[in-house]
Amino acid sequence: MARFRLIIATTLAAAALAGCSSGGSPSSAPPSGASAGAPVGSGGLQIAARDIKFDRTELALPANQPTSLLFDNQEGAPHNVEIKNAAGASVFTGEIFTGPAQRTYQVPALAAGTYSFLCTVHPDMKGTLTAQ
Ligand SMILES: [Cu+2]
């Protein structure tokens, strides 16, 4: 991802320079920041891991239907996402992989309710998942 951001930054810098050298028409300024933190797509659910932490402690997904979960492991440590029900029984265990890499997990339909999620490798990485 760092390389990708660098490419974007380089492209934006080049565009800014081109705009200046061509006389700087103010109306040609591109919109900025439109893509920062944007969701992957409609219904796109995602979570990232960095510094042995998830980037959020709460997740919500629709109940009673399979859902895609994009997991962005941003570091060279193995992580996954496991979901447990209120009784502590595992209802989904995503593939453990080492980053930087991403996987799209297919989470099965979950009944409405509150669940917990965690990393199987690092049980201190955890949060609350709500199916609603
Ligand atoms: Cu982990």
Describe the structure concisely for a colleague.
With 132 residues, this protein is α+β, with helices and mostly antiparallel strands. It contains one helix and eleven strands; from the N terminus they run αβββββββββββ. A hairpin with a 7-residue loop joins strand 10 and strand 11 (126-131).
Describe this entry's structure for a reader:
With 132 residues, this protein is α+β, with helices and mostly antiparallel strands. It folds into 2 domains: 1-37, no CATH class; 39-131, Immunoglobulin-like, CATH 2.60.40.420. The protein has 1 helix and 11 strands; from the N terminus they run H-E-E-E-E-E-E-E-E-E-E-E. The protein has one helix at residues 2-21, and strands spanning 45-50, 53-54, 58-61, 67-73, 78-79, 82-84, 90-93, 97-98, 101-107, 113-118, 126-131. The strands form 3 sheets. It has a 5-stranded mixed β-sheet, with no helix packed on it. A hairpin with a 5-residue loop joins strand 6 (82-84) and strand 7. The model is unreliable at 6-42 (pLDDT under 50). The protein binds copper (II) ion. Copper (II) ion binds at residues 79, 119, 121-122, 125. The site of copper (II) ion has 5 residues, from loops.
